[in-house]
Specification:
Oligomer: single chain
Strand content: 15-25%
Shape: globular
Radius of gyration: 19 Å
Number of strands: 13
Helix content: 25-40%
Distance between the termini: 34 Å
Largest sheet: 7 strands, parallel
CATH class: Alpha Beta
CATH topology: Rossmann fold
């Protein structure tokens, strides 16, 4: 199977490559990776044809080339505050989706966000625009996965968030042992393990070739928007307490004003998948701690 992954150097992309490479029959996949934003310092993933190039001729050469079975479009800014403060980058993000759509493919899996449901921020509105772009195109399978807060790492991959500065809640706790809470800390989110996210992407992206594929080549073209979450939410205060219990550390906490555009409570409603029997929020925190320790040993 010929696969293109945009954002393969990022947090979810690197874990997805690892899952694809290590699944049964993974050695038969021809995986190409392109990092549109080049926003991560992680080196190119092993076993990927790394086409790191921001220029238009890259897209033109791919547009004129052989068809991909599946495109996983993950490349994007994931920092909501940065997205809202930088409308120029927001436009670039949208245009990148338009360019990737021109590359010949059968299935297009787009990493959207739960923020697209509420559209209370520029980030959410742009994600909704990108969803509309992929659904407007005919003659392909188009799946938009609205991801809730992704946490943890695929076991043995050690790929957790490496962004600088760290903005997401659990990596911020693990890497800094400090946290700024905006508002009263009662805001809640649905935290979904990256292992589950990658499995969901693979099931949609590989179609009939996986045990749990949702369609095959003979079906009519599907256009779906799917929420990816467990339907269970934890407040910032609850995550903080869980981190302190797992790590045995006392975290430095400061409070700031509530940020405009932040959704107070968010969890998946319908079209969700079941939480793994072995998954807990504490386990995702532990996976992130272990990944951080492993990264320091490698350095």
């Amino acid at each position: 199977m010929k696969i293109l992954i945009t954002g393969h150097r990022g947090y979810i992309g690197a874990n997805l490559v690892y899952k694809l490479r290590n699944m049964e029959g993974g050695d038969k996949h021809v995986i190409h990776g392109v990092d549109i934003a080049n926003q991560d310092q992680r080196p190119g993933s092993r076993g990927v044809d790394d086409m790191l190039d921001k220029s238009d001729h890259l897209f033109q050469s791919m547009k004129d080339g052989a068809e991909f079975d599946t495109i996983f479009h993950l490349a994007a800014i994931s920092n909501v505050a940065e997205f809202n403060d930088n409308p120029v980058q927001a436009s670039i993000d949208t245009l990148s989706s338009l360019k990737v759509m021109e590359i010949p493919h059968k299935r297009f899996i787009f990493a959207s966000s739960a923020a697209a449901e509420h559209q209370e921020s520029m980030y959410g509105r742009i994600k909704r625009v990108c969803e509309q772009i992929i659904h407007d195109k005919e003659n392909h399978h188009a799946i938009a996965l609205r991801l809730h807060n992704v946490v943890g790492s695929v076991p043995a991959s050690n790929f957790y968030e490496l962004k600088d500065p760290v903005t997401h809640l659990i990596p911020q706790l693990v890497l800094n042992n400090a946290l700024t809470i905006y508002g009263d800390g009662e805001q809640s989110r649905d935290y979904v393990d990256v292992n589950s996210v990658c499995e969901e992407m693979i099931d949609w992206g590989l179609g009939h070739e996986t045990e749990f594929g949702y369609y095959d080549e003979d079906e009519e073209f599907l256009h779906k928007t799917i929420e990816v979450g467990y339907g269970i939410s934890y407040s910032v205060i609850e995550v903080l307490k869980a981190y302190q219990e797992v790590s045995g550390k006392k975290c430095v906490v400061t409070f700031g004003d509530e940020r405009p555009g932040d959704v107070n409570n968010q969890r998946a409603n319908g079209n969700t998948f079941s939480q793994s029997e072995t998954y807990t929020l504490e386990q995702s925190i532990m996976n992130t701690i272990m990944s951080d320790q492993q990264a320091k040993l490698i350095k």
